């Protein structure tokens, strides 16, 4: 059982619409669920993991509804975002408890195997209270894997990990995807998703904004209009030379900080503009002092995708 189908799913909490009419299929391999904070990623993951019911629409695993379906839970492992754990247990006890909840015939053996998979066997007899963030994350992962699920859902798994732990987890998730499992992880960092996911689903403000491989998502983000702040030795001459080119649609002189305020430039053709600017400056003998993107926040990139 490996394919999760989300069909016209919405979920609201009081007046807050956390997920708004989302339709997507998540199949075998590694999928990244990308979106800024508050986009609805956790709500979606919780519905896929059977922790939450959709308000409308359906969430199914190979055609059977997941909510309140024990049979489906056997095939799903979920690593939640929240930090709170049973600190008074050792890592091993925590994983064994999960194995028992799943009714596995040999909980200790299953826990040993799962801890071994995440390379945490060495710290299994330490109390969770003494673990670093990355270690907690790995123990949560072991408990999600203890019943060897075919679907693994991870909510922001790389948060708080150092680069080495991040690489290890990426390797593990890659391996699981290559074995034919369905691995879905959420993140608000494009680079993280790019490195790992063969397929990316983008969600913004509860809505499904884009879907595809990282090249497609990158292209969508690069092709949007970009705003730059440019300061030079002669802003007015530079503005006059740039405005004639179709790669720019608007140039404003920033008067707020006096004569050297710089130019706010809106560029609609990223590749052409980044080639044009230094060439024009060189030809006109203008020195470029600052070239900085002024709307690179993830939110602005995402809102462009939603509007597209
Ligand atoms: N139990 C709840 N009660 C009320 N509002 C909620 C609840 N859970 C989520 N929300 C709201 O739904 C929206 C989506 O939240 P969600 O946690 O799914 O987003 P997210 O993309 O996972 O963000 P983050 O990365 O910050 O966790 C937010 O506005 C959030 O405040």
TrEMBL record:
Presence of keyword Transport: yes
SUPFAM superfamilies: P-loop containing nucleoside triphosphate hydrolases
SMART domains linked to this entry: AAA
Keywords: ATP-binding, Nucleotide-binding, Transport
Annotated ABC transporter domain residues: 4-230
Keyword ATP-binding: yes
Gene Ontology MF terms in the entry: ATP binding
InterPro entries for the chain: AAA+_ATPase, ABC_transporter-like_ATP-bd, ABC_transporter-like_CS, P-loop_NTPase
PANTHER family: ABC TRANSPORTER RELATED (PTHR43335:SF11), ABC TRANSPORTER, ATP-BINDING PROTEIN (PTHR43335)
Entry's family note: Belongs to the ABC transporter superfamily.
Name this polypeptide is given: ABC transporter ATP-binding protein
